Amino acid sequence: MSAPGADGIQALAATAANPDAPVAPDTLTLQALRRAADDHGLPAATRTLLADAHHALVAASARADAERQRYRNLFDAVPDPVSIIAEDGTVMDLNRAGMQAYRRAREEIVNQNINVLNPDLPRDHLMPVWETLNRGETYVIEVTNMRGDGTRFPVEVHSANINFDGRKCIVAVARDISSRREAEQRYRELMENIDKGIVVQNRDMGFQYCNGAAMRIFGIREDQRASEELQADHWRVVGADGRELAREDYPSQRALDTGHMIESVLLGMYHRQRRQMIWLTVTSVPQFLPGGSTPAQVTSIFSDVTELKRDSALFDRAQSLAHIGGWEWDIARDRLYLTEEAIRILGATLPPENLQGLLACLRDSDRQRMRCAVERVALGGHGFDLELQGRRHEGTPFWVRVIGESEPGEPTASRVTGTLQDISQDKQAEETLRIQARTDPLTALMNRDAVLTEIAERLADPERAQVAVLYIDLDRFKMVNDVLGHNAGDELLVQAARRIRDAVGDDGMIARFGGDEFLVVCDASGDHRRPGRLADAVLHAFSEAFRFDKDEFSITASIGIATAPDDGQRPQQLIQNADIAMYDSKHRSRNGWQLFSPELAQRQQDRLQIETQLRRAVDNEEFRLVYQPQVDLRHGRVVAAEALIRWQNHQLGELRPDLFISHAETTGDIVRIGSWVLREACRQVAEWRDQGLGIVRVAVNVSYRQFVGEDLAEKVRVLLHEFDLPGSALELEFTERVLIEDAPATLRTFNELKALGVVLTIDDFGEGYSALNYLRRLPIHGLKLSQLFTEGVPSNRSDVAVCQAVSAIARSLGLGLVAEGVESEAQRQFLLQLGVPVGQGFLFAPGLSPDEFARRLELPLERASA
């Protein structure tokens, strides 16, 4: 418990102001008063008054006893000796702690002069005490008091004014400072015996104390005064670089100015007369007085490192010749030390202060490797030998070999030391060869083998195994390649690679995986949202159209994302699952990204099952055709039909065309399926003819693969001859992709089909990249207006504009026009006003079986148009 101040001392004795208040005699009882009243014949009112007075007197006595007891309890509760002293020096009271400290009974001290506790006090010792107390201040003094057995002990006495029982007195609290004196003595002995130099300076940098070690380091003899020998004019102070320091740069002055410790500064001190240089490592600590906001003095602790500095200079020279630098990390203080050669290798303008500073110049992956390796050593692990890559302050890259281990003789591994060697030249030569083997020559990105190796290495490293793969596929790339040629396709890939690189930046590794497919590999351990953000950045990078001379193409991307270890623990498995997610994204809606999930894998399995069953579907007679009427929009008369394929599989059930046609296109089975459709349509037309329904023209879709994969004109000629049909009984619908295949073979095939009388139509016109010059060159009979546009009319202005444009093209070129997807009367009326003569859709009929279609042909005109 600390000694109380003036207010505390006065409050402590406040209850002692009147401890001996008079108390009513115990003999004066209520019964005695009543008897006296009766004897004297006093009135009843007087007797009641006497009784009330008695009660009040008893209560006052009880309160006084309680106050005395409270005072005594508080007085004795103070752990330090407390005495009440009269003006003449007589001790009026003493607490229990005082009796224990002085080892005397209370009566041996109370009513005795204060000299009984300190016989060495001068006669007029109370005069300065009263002068201080009369100014309203607390008087503090250190004296030596005496115990009852004659032994002495030092005390620090705090005195204050009080009024005790109506008398002006002193309350004095004595604190035993024996332990503090012993501690100060031990501190002085430590200061003198420690091998570190210690100097204490005041606010004006004047020298107040200099221990023995400091005297020896500075060469000051015992008969010399340190304050004189350490004057500034005797010494020239330089920094680690040999430049003279101004006074404000001294560690001690900096500590005074900033109020913070200045740690481990290398200083050179040159004695001008002795011509002697000593090197010191100095730490300066500011010291504050209680309640002070600025340092009152500064203590500097230093070591003589002159020999170490000399050896270090020689070692640095050897290191610079071998391009090897040294480093040390003090774990407890998080301080990093670098040799001059290490600083030169790293290209640092100033050495980093902690390990993070060294790591900052390394690339991300190597920074993590270095940090983990150092921390393993710090935890008692084995040393490490790493080759790391980084970038210097001015931007030039470098390679270093870093070796580290715990300091020998350090059982707690409090320091990690090592070397770093500049191996940039060797690595640059290796890197050139490695890059050539790992780089895609067209885009300068990593190639397939390189990215597989990199992913495998990351997955094998537990600290980097949480890696994400973005599988990027360009939408409609083949269309550019087909329209503009392979040179334009290569240029598109180069531009796409550049956009992906700009979007990803340093957050991922990019590779061209093959064709128009790219991979981005990124770390997903610290931020699980990073793969999605990178995918969004890549999609945004493709939002602007690609330009090739005068042509402009909107090329988007479909992206699938898979993350290890949940989505795969081997490179091929991870990439395959990312591919599955990409495939799903492409088929749901292009220009998007999709995360892999087990459900997607199941869909992939389902696709494989579909493709397997698809190969046997023709042989198993699982396909059938339905026929959707094409109707005269004005009169409702059926003028033709479109053959639509349906697939009923014994395992998979009924499958929609949009579910299996794309698979057939991918696998190439579409060619065989297309041949079956063409033959079945011709057979059905012949059957209707034989039923007396006349020749019904049937439209059949021809895939691009079917067009280029076989002699289509010859096949059609054979079928027409087999079923004895005119060419006009058959209408072949081609996608716009056939239009842009501007080759002599294409033109020849179209001319041969036209010569057979076959009607040639471009299906879903307007969805792709049609050009009028292609329509002029090829012998096309008509266009089909896509359902994509008719479904929005007449309310959607954009769809209306497209329909008007396509209708105008057909009229200008003298081509027929059929509208698909007519489902409402409003659409029919709009198309009629637009001049479209024929339409098909659910407004008239869905796909019908051959018999249902035949009955529709037999209906009267008004029923057929209903």
From TrEMBL:
Q: The EAL domain covers which part of the protein?
A: 607-861
Name all GGDEF domain ranges. Answer: 465-598
Classify the source by domain of life: Bacteria
What region holds the PAC domain?
A: 139-189, 384-435
PROSITE patterns recorded: EAL, GGDEF, PAC, PAS
Give the PAS domain ranges.
67-120, 183-259
- Protein's name according to its UniProt entry: PAS domain S-box-containing protein/diguanylate cyclase (GGDEF) domain-containing protein
Which organism is the protein's source?
Answer: Pseudoxanthomonas indica
